[in-house]
Design goal:
Elements lengths: L2 E8 L2 H13 L5 E6 L5 H13 L6 E6 L5 H8 L7 E4 L3 H10 L6 H11 L7 H14 L1
Parallel strand pairs: 1-2, 1-3, 3-4
Length: 142
């Protein structure tokens, strides 16, 4: 893999995302999770993330996935952008993350992977009640 994915969230959400994605897509390398917990400061999390970046192999691109736009984990990642080059997507969910992990096999750059996944992102969220309502309407018309 030429792209490392780092998932960052409030609490253990990031670990749940990584575990769930690996259940669906198989064990993945260069796919790690970090959470911000009540006993930590944003500075603590930022230092952990910076250490992860420093320990990333030369030539490997990084994509950060964060849970909440303008949340503290998001801010920790953004604060590293002045000193490090990486891609960052926020507002993640499991379908989007599975798509991103699988897209890494395309051989594209981190930016290309992000662009591809973001095109499909709106399709990862559905109002199921409306889907069933539409289905019932179609059955009544027949």
């Amino acid at each position: 893999m030429k792209v490392k994915v780092i998932v960052v969230s409030h609490g253990s959400f990031s670990k749940g995302v990584v575990n769930s994605v690996q259940m669906l897509a198989g064990e993945q390398e260069d796919f790690v999770a970090y959470g911000l917990y009540p006993e930590q400061t944003v500075t603590d999390l930022t230092q952990q993330l910076e250490e992860e970046l420093k320990n990333t192999s030369e030539g490997k691109e990084v994509i950060f996935l964060s849970d909440l736009f303008h949340g503290s984990p998001f801010n920790a990642v953004v604060s590293l952008m002045k000193d490090y080059k990486f891609s960052h997507i926020t507002g993640i969910n499991i379908p989007l993350t599975v798509a991103l992990i699988l897209e890494r096999y395309s051989g594209g750059s981190a930016q290309e992977i992000c662009e591809t996944v973001l095109k499909d992102a709106p399709d990862t969220i559905k109002d199921v009640s409306k889907l069933f309502d539409n289905e019932e309407d179609e059955e009544e018309e027949e």
